[in-house]
């Protein structure tokens, strides 16, 4: 049967196919594999297809509803919220018996021996993993140009540009209609920046609300997984499924979504609107803020710690990353050199440049001689940044700010300049430092360097403020459409 879906389908669109018996789950999975076949030669967002797994799950679901009547099918879809919904997941999230590499050669061919909480929660709701997505090695980067295997993902809005990183594969897949939703991880912006660059929705949840069990650790006190999708309702639905306390993650919490009936006050952190913000992004925001003023009280606010965020982030990030990468020694996991020293030889041969750079930086700043000057100092400033946000959130409920100073940059533009790449993260690193959530709402396209490129607004709240983000996000989506 021919399947009729919009280019960027929502979960609701697919559920309707099942409710009206227009397609079987297997046909829907087939349909999305056909989309991948058609589109991914140019985008290069997929690193692995999970065909066996996907068709097995699809056939189980088809059998399950085969002889059910309409009312029963409706009930099943109400209970299994992602029944027959294909999705993709970044290549750093474990699925039992599937290969997962973090796009590092040091894990080449590694087959996971258990599944992450994130995967299990989605599959329990009937979702079907059809592909794993490209990323920068071990989620270090901002562009998805630095997989250890050399695959570079392209932005569906402009094939010469990056999709953002490090969840660029997940974002590009959703934006090009190869899956209705995908899962990414965000340490310092890796869900938010690609969502913004590709023109889709994405959320970095409050730290601790989504279990990290079974996700490759990059920076344990920052990492959070979250969804990328085509509308806010889908983001909300998936996040609700993912936000469960897990006994396997000691930082996991069951507090979620503190709501408030009060009409939110919007804060504009003026520090992020200064030098360095591109004129095109600034104009778009000024227009949006004008329109928001008709609905909300909007106040300019001033942060005191903005200028320290990037330094604090890159000290803490590299210290934690260097510790987390210690386990890859060529003995317990993945690939090992056959001649030469096993431990240092394997690490030298199979870690990419950025991983090595971070190991060296992190080892240096946490070494006995420099610990107080760097790591310890950064921990202290982290606390000041947290308090700065706490202060601001006594005055306003939601911050509205850009996600990046500019739209998607060209492939190769920042490749030889790690500093330029780090600076691209300036608008996304302070929130993970303070453990607070950020939601991306696409604002539309700007004309930039001759291309039409998406720009996303970033809405930020205090810890557990996701409900308020959704409330304002919904209004924002209405205002701009
Ligand atoms: N660009 C940041 C970094 O390189 C954030 C990456 C991420 O969120 N995984 O560390």
What layout of secondary structure does this protein have?
Elements: H1 11-19, H2 25-43, E1 46-49, H3 51-65, H4 70-79, E2 86-90, H5 117-124, E3 128-133, H6 168-175, E4 181-186, H7 192-198, E5 201-204, E6 224-229, H8 232-242, E7 266-269, H9 279-293, E8 298-301, H10 309-324, H11 342-350, H12 353-365, H13 372-395, E9 398-402, H14 418-423, H15 430-433, E10 438-448, E11 451-460, H16 466-480
Parallel strand pairs: 2-3, 2-4, 7-8, 7-9
Antiparallel strand pairs: 1-3, 4-6, 5-6, 5-10, 9-11, 10-11
Helix pairs in contact: 10-12, 10-13
The appropriate CATH architecture is Alpha-Beta Complex
List bound small molecules: glutamine
What is the name of the CATH topology? Amidase signature (AS) enzymes
Please write the string of helix (H) and strand (E) elements. Answer: HHEHHEHEHEHEEHEHEHHHHEHHEEH
Report strand order across the widest sheet: 1-3-2-4-6-5-10-11-9-7-8
Number of domains: 1
Low-confidence stretches: none
Instruction: Count up the helices.
Output: 16
By secondary-structure content and strand pairing, the structural class works out as alpha/beta
Mean pLDDT across all amino acids: 96
N- and C-termini, Cα separation: 33 Å
What is the global morphology? globular
């Amino acid at each position: 049967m021919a399947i009729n879906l919009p280019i960027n389908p929502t979960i609701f669109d697919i559920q309707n196919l099942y409710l009206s018996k227009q397609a079987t789950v297997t046909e829907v999975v087939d349909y999305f594999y056909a989309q991948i076949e058609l589109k991914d030669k140019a985008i290069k967002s997929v690193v692995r297809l999970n065909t066996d797994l996907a068709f097995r799950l699809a056939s189980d679901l088809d059998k399950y509803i085969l002889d059910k009547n309409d009312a029963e099918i409706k009930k099943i879809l109400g209970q299994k919220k992602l029944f027959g919904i294909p999705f993709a997941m970044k290549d750093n999230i474990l699925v039992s018996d599937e290969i997962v590499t973090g796009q590092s050669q040091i894990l080449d061919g590694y087959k996971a021996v258990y599944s992450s909480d994130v995967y299990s929660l989605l599959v329990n709701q009937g979702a079907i993993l059809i592909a794993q997505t490209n990323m920068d090695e071990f989620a270090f980067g901002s562009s998805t140009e630095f997989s250890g295997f050399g695959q570079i993902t392209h932005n569906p809005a402009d094939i010469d540009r990056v999709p953002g990183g490090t969840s660029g594969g997940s974002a590009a897949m959703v934006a090009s209609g190869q899956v209705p939703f995908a899962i990414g991880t965000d340490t310092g912006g890796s869900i938010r920046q690609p969502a913004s660059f590709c023109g889709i929705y994405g959320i970095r949840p409050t730290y601790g609300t989504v279990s990290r069990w079974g996700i490759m650790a990059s920076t344990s006190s920052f990492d959070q997984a979250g969804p990328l999708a085509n509308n806010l309702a889908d983001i909300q639905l998936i996040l609700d499924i993912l936000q469960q306390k897990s006994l396997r993650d000691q930082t996991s919490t069951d507090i979620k979504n503190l709501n408030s009936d009060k009409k939110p006050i919007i804060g504009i952190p003026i520090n992020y609107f200064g030098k360095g913000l591109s004129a095109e992004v600034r104009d778009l925001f000024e227009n949006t803020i004008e329109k928001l003023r008709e609905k909300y009280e909007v106040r300019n606010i001033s942060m005191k710690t903005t200028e320290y965020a990037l330094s604090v982030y890159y000290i803490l990030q590299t210290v934690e990353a260097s510790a987390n990468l210690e386990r890859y020694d060529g003995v317990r996991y993945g690939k090992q050199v056959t001649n030469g020293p096993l431990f240092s030889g394997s690490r030298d041969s199979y870690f990419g440049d950025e991983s090595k750079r971070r190991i060296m930086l992190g080892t240096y700043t946490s070494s006995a001689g420099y610990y107080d000057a760097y790591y310890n100092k950064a921990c202290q400033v982290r606390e000041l940044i947290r308090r700065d946000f706490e202060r601001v959130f006594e005055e306003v409920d939601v911050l509205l700010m850009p996600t990046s100073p500019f739209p998607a940059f060209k492939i190769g533009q920042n490749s030889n300049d790690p500093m330029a790449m780090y600076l691209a993260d300036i608008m996304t690193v302070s929130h993970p430092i303070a453990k607070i959530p950020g939601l991306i709402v696409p604002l539309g396209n700007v004309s930039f360097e001759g291309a039409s490129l998406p720009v996303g607004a970033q809405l930020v709240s205090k810890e557990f403020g996701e409900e308020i983000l959704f409330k304002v996000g919904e209004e924002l989506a209405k205002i701009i459409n």
